[in-house]
Design brief:
InterPro entries: YlxR, YlxR-like_sf, YlxR_dom. The protein is an alpha+beta fold and about 80 residues long. It has one domain: Hypothetical Cytosolic Protein, Chain: A (2-Layer Sandwich). About 35% of the residues lie in helices and about 20% in strands. The chain has three helices and three strands. A three-stranded antiparallel beta sheet has the order 2-1-3, with helices on one face. The longest helix has 12 residues. The chain is globular and about 30 Å long. The two termini are about 20 Å apart. The relative contact order is 0.23.
Length: about 80
Amino acid sequence: MCLGCGEMLPKRELIRVVKSSEGEISLDVTGKKPGRGAYVCKKSECFAKMRKSRRLESKLAGAIPPEVYEKLEEELQQYE
């Protein structure tokens, strides 16, 4: 389920955002990185909704600095 729009989509159509045990947050396009994960559509609108509603922070259990969101957004644009 996308954290932005809430739509149920196949995992192949979503991008996983993962928080490693060291606390590093990154995109996981393979879906195989270890850690706690959350999913978002490949649309920038969904990413913006997820960021505004802070759903990612609650799903990954912790505050996320703005620079991490900016980095994720840049990476996400490659897949849009």
